[in-house]
Amino acid sequence: MSTSAETQQSDAKRQHLLERLLDAVKQCQIRFGGRKEIATDSDSRVICLCAQFEAVLQHGLKKSRGLALTAAALKQAAGLSSKNEGDLTFWFYVKEHLNRHELQRFYSLRHISSELGRGRAWLRCALNEHSLERYLHSLLADRPRLGSMSFNYYEDWSFVLDEERASMLPTMAAGLNSILFAINIDNTDLNGGLSRGGGNSVSHLLKGSTQGIGSLWKESAQGVSSLLREISTATSVPGFTPKVDDTSDPLPVLPRSTSAGEKNQFLLTIVVKNAENPLSHIFSPVELRQATVAMMNRKDELEEQNASLRSLLDGEMEHSAGLRQETDLLKKKLAELEERHTARIQALSRENEVLKVQLKKYVGAVQMLKREGSQGNDDLSLLRSCEEQAPVPPNKFMGDVEELAASYERKLIEVAEMHGELIEFNERLYRSLMAKDHLIVQMRQELIDLRGPVPGDLSQTSDDPSLSDFETAHRALINVWIPSVFLQGRAANAYHVYQVYIRIQDNEWNVYRRYTEFRELHNHLRTQFPQVHAFNFPPKKALGNKDAKFVEERRKQLQGYLRMVMNKLIQTLPELTARPTKETLLSLLPFYAPAGESGAPSCSSRRPCSWKARSRSRGQSQQSRE
Fold first, then answer.
1. Which part of the chain is the PX domain (predicted)?
2. Do 470 and 575 lie in a common domain?
3. Residue 276, in any domain of the structure
4. Could you read off the pLDDT of 570-610 as tens digits, one per residue?
5. By C-alpha distance, which of 487, 467, 476, 435 is closest to 581?
6. CA–CA distance, 610 with 591 (Å, rounded to integer)
7. Is residue 31 in some structural domain?
8. How far apart (Å, rounded) are the C-alpha atoms in residues 264 and 324?
9. Rounded distance between C-alpha atoms, residue 511 and residue 594, angstroms
10. Left (φ > 0), alpha (ψ -120 to 50) or beta: where does 599 sit?
11. What's the domain count of the chain?
């Protein structure tokens, strides 16, 4: 009964960790997914995501690895490590899968001084470089080191040994590739140790490394002999072969003229002696002094390596400073362009005001000409009547007529000049408006590509001319897009998986589909809707289908295809327009069902998709009702 209860409790703990990690990934995808905004450790969502990944990797980690703890105790006695370095963290397992350059990178961090801090720095660096998925595949594939060997790292009830739940870790890491992380990895806050009491004395550290781990010493004794033989072969030190079978042999004395490899083997021999029988031997001052001398020599070598790494880091810092200067220069140029555009807009506004004033003058001049023309006709009729009554001198009459004609000519010239200026300003304003309209159309299309069409955008994006204005305005708010694509599998069996993101009002979810599933959906819809033949569906390609440019172009084409299909479903099926919910959509098209829910497609190369059969039965039942 107790074993069953412990099993249920461990399973509940793993499920709780999985749910919290899924929630942290979802929050980060909602906040930063598909955007150009950078996700830093100043955001609580990013902090929560890192903490959940640490909890998963730390769960079930064995805390009684005697050889590692004893070596940490010796290093702490020599003053070469911090008090938290003896704590066993997931870094001890992760560093087994890193190459020499990667290890040097994390050991050369200036502000990281503990193993826990290096593990946290590795996790944040993997998020920044979008390499967490690759690392997780490597960690989970190493089953011998995880739990099957006697010298393993994790307990049988740990999260990483739960194949069903652990297999979801690389997929969740791949879903984070659409986020631009910029997390600080060289931070003293990452050194925070595990909560564990204890003093600083050597005897207390040695007691803590051996207390309650009798079974571990037996396991360590089985693998120490082979470990020392491998080290002896690698260092090729003649005349020195440590003995681990005879517990009565005294500890060797370190000669003065010894190489770095002999010093390391001497230290390992001391550790092995105590690993075989930890409670029967206490370190003497001479032994501790010799171990300290060997570690000090090793410290000098590490300091030389650190100096070379610091020089490399200085070079990288100079390069980063150059990049920052270029970024500042580009920002200044952008600010200048914005100022120029602002000044241009203000100039056009002033020209528009001047144009309005001149137009008013033009209208006033025309009205004045009309009034003066009617008045001139009255004057001519009055002159004629006066001529009939009394004679008028001809010279005076001709002078008045010429003066009137000259005034008309001057006014006509002014009107012509204002008309020419009006035409010029009108052409300039028209060109400016056309340029702005083109920019607005381009920006609207980019916005639609990012967040999907809304009812106001359907009139510009829909390829179906049969949609009326009423249907466009009252269209159900269902958005679909494909934000990312990632590679699944290995070698010749690798294939691309597309992340399909669906949002219906406030309800949103993700599904992951292969290209073959999209093609089966297209073939299935062509049998029900003849209009689907005209939709732009990306064709199949046998060679070069894993090229990055080709995959990105196919992602855009599949996204446009799904949106056209959604518009056609909303136009054709009234039940979706009347009740736009997730349940309605999944009942009509199970292609959008997430994995694990009823209606989710279970496709493979040998078995057809189950959603096709359900969709076919739904269509037959609908025809029978008709």
1. 476-593
2. no
3. no
4. 888 888 888 888 888 888 888 999 877 655 554 443 333 44
5. 476
6. 9
7. yes
8. 44
9. 5
10. left
11. 4
